[in-house]
Specification:
11 helices, single chain, 16 strands, 24% strand
């Protein structure tokens, strides 16, 4: 482990000393590929013999979605969890009060959302300092990350935490690059570009793939991709997670200062201690989670608006709806009747591939055997 961290530091130092221009792009691409491979070794360390196990911060996943609280020690994560979920998480004026993951759960707009108060991370967490790797590993499993920042020093902490999460393969508020990458057995490197590339060319791609010992592949670039984005696709282990920055302790600054820091994108100013601006926080949380609520309607009865079936936006077909209720329903499905914005007629017969919209009402009709 120490050898890997030392090699990462050497590569980062060499990259900082190398000028960025067309002549050095191949060399920088090679260094970035080496860096990504070493980072992967940190993310998935080799299993060691013997019975020595590393204690994990992971907790069982419950509810419809999961949110992880990430931040430096003593920024108010535990206070926020206690106020939102009513769960006791030890709060004190000293750092590292929370030493393990504290789970909580809130119900918002019919959805059960699990909240995880993670131990505070420090600079160098991605390299294993302060058990940061276990903390960030739990953050990778979240559907949304709350980065809690002290409003008195938001930008400095924000930059460090982003660097730690990026180094561990988490991409905040980004979408996967539109790049198709397929390995093959023979035929060499075949590159297709749909748009003009400002950074990548065939020689640079070959240099990067040579570091991974890939000699045969089909690559289609459908966007103006960077070297880092291409390496992310080759690695294939990146997590693209939405993130909201919570600027805590706003009771300690003036209105003028608050107006300035609110211009940072993806932020919500709050005061965990005084419970200020929680409504805005919960509304923004709902927007970023992109959940879809589907109401069930038994035959001859009114729809059940109290307990909706909650689905993810990218998986909200009738088939996903049936599987969320019970795996056996899909085998007996004849068709579904749908009321709502996803259909033209009210109600309308649909099959298992029909994509549902938020607050649709669905009645399942089973085939008689």
């Amino acid at each position: 482990m120490g050898d890997v961290i030392r090699r990462i530091e050497e590569i980062e130092y060499e990259m900082s000393k190398t000028q960025k221009n067309k002549a050095t792009s191949g060399h920088l691409g090679l260094l970035k590929a080496k860096l990504a491979k070493l980072r992967r070794e940190l993310i998935t360390p080799k299993s060691q013999g013997g019975s020595g196990t590393v204690e994990s911060f992971e907790v069982a996943k419950t509810g419809d979605s999961r949110i992880g609280f990430v931040g430096f020690p003593s920024v108010g994560k535990s206070t926020l969890l206690s106020n939102l979920a009513g769960v006791y998480s030890e709060v004190a004026a000293y750092e590292f009060t929370t030493l393990t993951t504290v789970p909580g759960c809130i119900k918002y707009k019919g959805a059960k959302i699990q909240l995880l108060d993670l131990p505070g991370i420090i600079e160098g967490a991605k390299d294993g300092k302060g058990r940061g790797r276990q903390v960030i590993a739990v953050a990778r499993t979240a559907n949304l990350i709350f980065i809690v920042l002290d409003v008195l020093k938001p930008l400095g902490h924000k930059k460090i935490i982003e660097s730690e999460l990026e180094g561990f393969g988490i991409r905040l508020n980004k979408t996967p690059p539109n790049i198709i990458f397929r390995k093959k057995d023979k035929g060499g490197i075949n590159l297709q570009t749909m748009v003009t590339q400002s950074e990548l060319d065939l020689d640079l791609i070959k240099t990067i793939l040579a570091e991974y010992r890939i000699c045969n592949a089909d690559i289609t670039l459908r966007c103006d991709a960077t070297t880092d984005e291409f390496i992310d696709v080759v690695e294939g282990n990146r997590s693209y997670i939405p993130c909201i920055y919570l600027l805590n302790k706003i009771d300690q600054i003036s209105i003028e200062e608050l107006d300035i820091i609110c211009k940072i994108p993806h932020t919500v100013p709050i005061s965990a201690h005084h419970k200020w601006n929680y409504d805005d926080l919960l509304e923004k949380m709902w927007q970023y989670l992109k959940l879809v609520r589907i109401y069930t309607k038994p035959k001859g009865q009114l729809p059940d608006y109290e307990s909706p079936v909650v689905l993810q936006t990218e998986r909200c077909s009738v088939e996903d709806f049936c599987n969320k209720i019970h795996r056996t329903i899909l085998k007996e499905l004849k068709y579904a009747l749908v009321w709502g914005s996803s259909v033209k007629h009210q109600p309308q017969r649909v099959g298992k591939d029909h994509v549902l919209h938020d607050e649709d009402v669905v009645q399942i009709v089973k085939s008689v055997k």
